[in-house]
Amino acid sequence: MNRKSMVIFFPIVFSVYFLVNIYLFIKGFRAIPKTGYGKIIYTIIFILFALSFLAGKIAERNHSSPLTDFLSFAGSFWLAFMLYAFLFLLVTDILSPFLKLTGLINSGNIQSFRKWLFIFAVALSSLLILAGYLNTLTPVVRHYNISINKKAGDYKTYKIAAVSDIHLGSNTNIRFIKKLSDILTRVKPDAVFLLGDIVDGEIVPVIRKDLLKHFTCPRCNDGLLAITGNHEFIGGASITIPYIESKGIKILKDEVAVIDGGIQVIGRIDRDGFRYNSYRRAPLAELIEKTDTSKPLIVLDHQPVNLDEAANAGIDLQLSGHTHRGQMWPLNYITEKVYENSYGIMKKGKTYFIVSSGYGLWGPRVRLGSKPEIVVVDIVFEN
């Protein structure tokens, strides 16, 4: 990340993290009786959880180990707890003046109200987090059927498997990778596209466990293509990209690849490449000049932005990820406002846009309101 981005990004993130934790700490501290050691024990436990994610992420950069993996894993659940406990408690703070007016809260029961409210927030948040974690363990295959009015050699149909946002990192185990490989084997695609954010950012734990060694799939020799996401640059493209390519995965960096039937695949550098590592990507029109537009044109672009650019250029299909479909409700409402198509399939003119919710996770090991998925696109070529 360049200096300017760091100056803007980190103070904002740490400020929000600090303020939310202070808010939650105060709510819990006030709910505990003054007698005994309850407040001391609560303070110690709270600080340990609140610092676990930051400690794990800072330490793993130079000293990646099972301990830093554990800290990051435990801290990831704390991030989810911060979100849901904050929302529940904030709503009750908004409603409490009305409850006081009605007499339901008064000086005689306010301490009891605070205690049971905090217990309820912790219990409900924990249930949601458990459900969200279990949801991450059951990825699905999402099917889409489209038709392209072009010839692709002798191919009348073609099956693409697209996987976005795997986010390999300290919280990733080998079983996670093998499950992905097994699903791709069952799907039997003609080509596999990895749509960016293959790694979570910090590459040290990925290399320590050599996670990509366990990734296998059909057509991995000549039918596997990938692009960069923003996290490839966050972690340092000079290390991340060579590691991925050392496993036989071809990353298209503003390049065009020709696959079966003369299908043209344009792989774009992620637009955040410039923000983090001064990689300035080429305009789509410039890349199209290198293609045979009479053949099917597929664009791989990690972030689903500026869709009109691809639609006006006559692209047949664009595949993207990045949004995670919000990953945790109600964040999906934010992604729906930010992106013209934050999830699923959309057609503009003759161009299909498909956005995946991703296979992996960023931050919390929790998904609510979306499923981890592998996208399968069955294409029919028509004259």
Explain what you see.
The protein has 383 residues and is α/β, with parallel strands linked by helices. The protein has 2 domains: 3-135, no CATH class; 140-381, Metallo-dependent phosphatases (Purple Acid Phosphatase, chain A, domain 2, 4-Layer Sandwich), CATH 3.60.21.10. The chain contains 12 helices and 12 strands. The protein has a 6-stranded mixed beta sheet, covered by helices on one side. The chain has a 6-stranded mixed beta sheet with strand order 6-7-8-9-11-10. Helix 3 (66-102) packs across helix 4. The longest helix has 37 residues, at 66-102.
What features would you highlight for this structure?
383 residues, alpha/beta, Purple Acid Phosphatase, chain A, domain 2, 2 domains, six-stranded mixed sheet, elongated
List the helices and strands and how they pair.
Layout: H1 3-31, H2 38-63, H3 66-102, H4 110-136, E1 140-148, E2 157-163, H5 174-187, E3 191-194, H6 204-209, E4 224-226, H7 230-234, H8 237-245, E5 250-251, E6 255-258, E7 264-267, H9 273-277, H10 284-288, E8 297-300, H11 307-312, E9 317-320, H12 332-338, E10 344-348, E11 351-355, E12 373-381
Parallel strand pairs: 1-12, 2-3, 3-4, 4-5, 7-8, 8-9, 9-11
Antiparallel strand pairs: 2-12, 6-7, 10-11
Helix pairs in contact: 1-2, 1-3, 1-4, 2-3, 3-4
